[in-house]
Structures are given as structure tokens and as C-alpha cells.
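Service request form, structural biology core

Requester: graduate student, group of Dr. S.
Request type: structure prediction, single chain
Budget code: on file
Notes: please return the result as C-alpha cells.

Sequence provided:
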Amino acid sequence: MSTPLDAASMQLQNLARTAALLADGALPPPDPVSGVTYASSGRTLVIGRAADAMPLAALLSPQLAVSVLLVADADGAVAGISPPAYGFPVHAGRDVRITGWLGAFKASWQSADALAGNTPAHDGGGAGGTFDLILDLSPTPLLTQHQPPQGYFAPGGAPAAQIDAALQLAHMVGEFEKPKYFHYKERLCAHSRNHITGCSACIDVCSTRAITGAGDRIRVEPHLCMGCGACTTVCPSGALAYAWPDAPHAGRRLKTMLSAFATAGGSEPVILVHSAGRGSMLLREAAHLARSGGHPEIPARLLPLEVHHTASVGMDLWLAAIAYGASGIAVLATDEEAPQYLEALERQMAIAQTILSGLGYGGMHCRLLQVATAQELQAAFQCMPLGESPARAASFHVAADKRNALDFALEHLHRHAPVPQEQVALPVGAPFGAVVVDTAACTLCMSCVGACPESALMDSQNAPQLRFVEKNCVQCGLCEKTCPEQAISLAPRISFAATAKAAIVLNESQPFCCIRCGKPFGTLQMINSMLAKLSEHGAFSGNPDRLKMCGDCRVIDMMTNQAQTRVIELQPPAPQPAP
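Core staff response, request fulfilled:
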């Protein structure tokens, strides 16, 4: 908690905050991004029990092309419905499945007995169809993700909520567009290699189920993406980058506000990251409470950074803000955030704080504020983070590439650290670190080199060497999982040594030369390992020296000594009895 200020200092802080906010407001808008388009003609599927679904379907049918799916019991019976004809298709079924998004939903179900007088759905028949909109009145929503797709409404059992959902559906006809919130650089992705999974952080954190594995890479469905940005925050390599706005624009805002605040005489600034929705509303309510009396003012050192979603701002921007002179970063979380987002933010904050504390920066720099009301937010204002910042504010601009942005921030923080360290140990899961190689077990087969997506592990063209550039390592674990000898382990840490940017030799061996032609074709460890594992194999038991030959000489030797190539002697066929 900061020291209470006298009236003059408080006024100076308020003026400094005003200067910071004015400077932020004067910045040009972010660059435009490409859009994602939806097209809805109003084909609507209403799912639920007859007592709920039929009245709402009748309400919507004059405006939308409505179909109804009545949820059947396990025996196929549908309660509360009689067979007269309706002005829209009515179906009964169970085991309903829904995929898709606004304008492109696919629904399928196990059909129950058809209702008398029923007609097929306009585009799918009795066992399924495609729809633009879904009104799910099931007691338990069919889609359980925290953020369902646009065009899907599951209002629950409250009549008022059901009517509100129906009114929203009535206006969802036509073409709609939203920003494409992300950029994906496939070459940087550390998801998988050779059917071995490395990093799945984005898939695990996504609350819309928009991200799936696609071979060695991932696939992000832009129609399902809602722009939370948590995937970009947890991505260790920067393969996924937030685009609305991008990191350089957010960094420009941070730098501008903090510079203006310091120039105007402000001290100990804290960046408050909040959403444009619920977060902004709580801030307005807290300000209203302060003006009405009886509640403390919003601290003048608090500089709000409004973003589309709080999970989109991660460690690269937090550390940049500290390098620019911020005393702390507070992230305002409300009921908008999925639980996995909060867990991810806390893990990222723990990593950032470990780095700052390891470099000797005192105090707490990062805090996640979880509040539901303006009163709770007022209470949280009294314990904002207050950490030590560098003696000199950084001048760099935040780079679009996440790893470069982190490098700039970390280099500045290390250069001005109260207690500089060559390396700081980090928690498991950190995106920085080294690999440790058991040289006795490693055969220099280079499987790890082929699996490494970031070129952190490399071989040498001149000698049997395994080399490593620590700066490139994202700790995805693909090398560890790929190694056939289980000779590799991960060591999460951040290294500020000059050697972290250079290729160092983790293991090397003298080359093994073919005993027939003298050409080097492997390493001594590899050949010894092969001899131990294959010398008793039928293909080599007659002549184990073939394992010491290169591929060409091995073939020549086998053709020269063909009698030795047979593992099982062929027997002449038995004579057949005369008919």
C-alpha cells in the first residue's frame, strides 16, 4: 500500500493522471484488421419441451423460418404435445448434437416417432439439418463451453430470459461482421511434430473451443473466436498473436500514458487493465460511488487501459509497462472471464513476478483483481500493487513478435536491475529455459533437432555435435518427448548471460568411420548402442560387423556373401500325394 499523500501531492497526481489520459486519447486509432462475415437468413431451430418451445416458436414464426425439436424421453415419448398441424415443422428426438456458428449451425438428433401431420425440416429431414440460429430451451444447455457461439441462445428456464432471447433472435437476420482477432504464424507453432504433442496451451485455454489440433499445427476457427486473446497470452512462441489491437499499438498506449504521467510529476503509476464491457461499467459505478460521498476516490496513480478482453494482455506487455516506469499491473477480472483464463493469468503473473523479484525489484508488481460489484472494486483499490521500477524508463517500442518484445523488456529490466543476476529459476511451464542432456545416454541421433520447432536445438555440419541456443527455447517439451534414449530434460529458467544468445555444445562425439570404406556415417555412441541392441538379431548374428559399415558397404557385403543373408533356410516343398 502506498504512503498517503497530502493535498498538494494528491492534486499533482490527479493532474498527472489527466495528462496521461489525454495523451492516450490523442493517439491515432489502431490499424484496421480483416473481418469475419456471418450470413443469416433466419432459419431457426427451437429446442426444448413442448410447454416451453411451442409458444416461443409461435411467437417467432412470423419473422423467422422456425423449426421445433421437442426433446423426447428415453423411450421416445414426447409429453405435452398433440398432433394438429402447425405453421412450422415440429420434430421429436433425443441425443441432440449441435456444431457450428451463426448462419452455419448443424444439428443432429436421434429421431423419435414422427408426430402426426409433421413435415420434414426445410433442409435437413427428421434426423438433422442446418440452421442459422439456435434457441436452446433445454434444462441443461446442449453447448457447455463458457462462451457459446454467436447465434446460439440458451436462456434457461426463466420466462423473462426466454422472451429476451427470442427478441434478440428476431433481429439476427442479414449479414454481420466482426474483426478477425488473431494472427497465426504456422512456422512458429510448437504444437506437435511427428504425431507427438508438445504445446497445447492455446487449445487448453480456449473457452469457445475454436482451436483444435491439425497435424503438427493448430487450426483456429475465426467464426467461433470471440477475441478473448487468452490463447495469445499463453502461447510461448508468439505463433498466435492478438490483432485487435496488436501488441505494438497496446505498447504505444502504455508508453504514452506512463511517459505523460511521469512528465507531469506523477509517481508510482499502476496500469489497470479492464474490459470495455463489464470492467468499464464497474469503474463508472465506483467513480459514481466516490462522487456521491462515503466512498474513497479512485487512486490517482491508477491509469486505466481499456481493452476488448483482459486475457489478451500478457507478460510481454506487463513487463514492458514495468520497463516504461509502472509500479505495477492490475488486471480487473469480472464474471466475463472464463475460469481457465483466470488460472492462466495467475500463472503468467507468477512467472513475471519471479523474474522481477529475482532481479531484485522489490514489492509486488502484478495482481489479479476478481470483483463482482463496485463496492468490491473500491475495496480492491486500497491494495493495488506497488513494486519497484527501473531507475530509468525504457525507450524501446513493443515489437509485433512476442519473443522480441519480451527480449527488449527483459534486457532493459536486467540492465537496470537492483541485483543483476545471470539467470533466474522459473516455475514449470515458463516459456524460457534450457534443456539438460544426459551425455552418457545421448547417442547424437539428432531426433530432437528434427523435432525442435524453434531451432533451439541444432546439429553441426562439421562434426557430430548437438548444439543449443537458449534464447530460442520455449520449453514446449517436444525434444524431451521425442528422444528415444530419454536423455533430455527441461530446466525452466531465464538466462541473461551472453551465452544464451549463442549456440553452445550440449554433447559431441568422435565420428565413427565405416570399417570397409572409411567414410564417417555415425557416432561412436550410436554404433555401440546399435551393437548392444541388434547384435543378437537374426539379420546380424552371422556377421555383426555389418553394423559397423555404412549403408552402401553393408549392401555390398550382403550381396558378396549371400549365403549369410538368409535368416531362415528355405525348405523344398513336400511332395504331393498322387490323386
